[in-house]
Amino acid sequence: MNKTRSKTGRLVAVLGLGALTATLVAGPALATTDVAPGFPAPTQHTQEAYSPTDDFTARWTRADAKQIKAMSDPTAGSRENSMPEEFTMPTVSQDFPDMSNEKVWVWDTWPLVDENANQYSVSGQEIIFSLVADRKLGFDERHQYARIGYFYRAAGVPADQRPENGGWTYGGEVFDEGVTGKIFEDQSFSHQTQWSGSARVTKNGEVKLFFTDVAFYRDAAGNDIKAYDPRIALSVGHVHANKNGVKFTGFNKVTDLLQADGKLYQNAEQNQFFNFRDPFTFEDPAHPGETYMVFEGNTAQKRDEAQCTAEDLGYREGETNGETVAEVNKSGATYQIGNVGLARATNKELTKWEFLPPILSANCVTDQTERPQIYMKDGKYYLFTISHRSTFAAGIDGPEGVYGFVGDGIRSDYQPLNRGSGLALGSPTNLNFASGTPFAPDYNQHPGQFQAYSHYVMPNGLVQSFIDTIGTKDNFVRGGTLGPTVRLDIEGASATVDRSYGNLGLGGWADIPSNRELKTNNGAAK
Does Signal count among this protein's keywords (predicted)? Predict the structure, then answer.
């Protein structure tokens, strides 16, 4: 057992659980009036910062996550939203425009940024990267055929003066066929694909594209011959832009950066369905000269042997609305052990990295902490991630959307936002009814339950996402394009929807504005 001293001077025990993690400081119960009847109080979190290299891992506990359901209106009827309006994205219309002009399906999207997450236009062109797939495929087939594509548009044009679909031009795929498959030792893969990441630009127009490089090994019937192989990877190129458009050169080599180690981050030997993806890199003003990466992972336990602990549950001493460890372990919640990983670059070229312990665990809360990112405001560090309703553990429920946490540093005893729940921005959802699936929504669900996913929080609290499904079971349409931008007012431990932004809270479709400009002499294709 290791020990770390808290701000109060008390010693907090740090217990090993796959990755080393930390217990949470127990405290007095909240007043009865502060807690929804029948629900536990959230776990106490200090927001205290630790060194990025410490073995402290914050926990998003079951006590925290139960606050999501505690906020839900139990009287909300069929097809109504049961969640608080201030934490809910306004309902999106089915009559949405397609940003690619029917060329490709579009989902996870990220901008061209610097080390501080500022978003750049280059020589008058705004640029974004997206996961894309041929529209000849069914929308739900896209994941194993995903490629990284890019779009561009003229910078500085107000959203209300652009074409309705955002005014983007599809530039094509970033990589030539076969480039990203070369890093895999086993070349017998049936499908080789590219998943989400982030893109860093320098003053001379160099672009470091961090992404998830994936190989699938399946037979003709679609059955796994062996577990899929996801790796965090880097490719370097250059952006060329002028008034005529944008092109990229380079991106002809891929460097394998990180593979799940089975010690801090679950690997295929422990669980063939493990999650390891979505690198987001940044620099920390508190640690000049250091570059860090957050990514989605799972706690390094064997799938059939994983166990929840009292610390994962997070109930306060004397809590009467909690659960026992035995009850939770018996429920099957042990299959959901998502975390947010941390790595540090060990050279200036950012081609070599070392794992650090996770900064957040969600053991027995959710299995997916997708596309994590660090967002800084007013001296605070916000950790945002996204999760599906379907990936929450037994006994936990919440909408599709953004979940957020606040602390005093990269590695903090993160406090979940909004009443201690973690919910920052959900799609309109009725937790009184089942969800169904995007291709078969439950009859009673709100038409917006699957309207948005894969959110990315931009400067000034703007948030973009893609459309999955909009509508009810008897009248729904699939998406495959970016939805309208919304804005969060982020302050302290709260994040609320700005309903004064755009049209009652909904901004322009596929609107991802730059807040910085880069001029290069590289030119562009004509």
Answer: yes
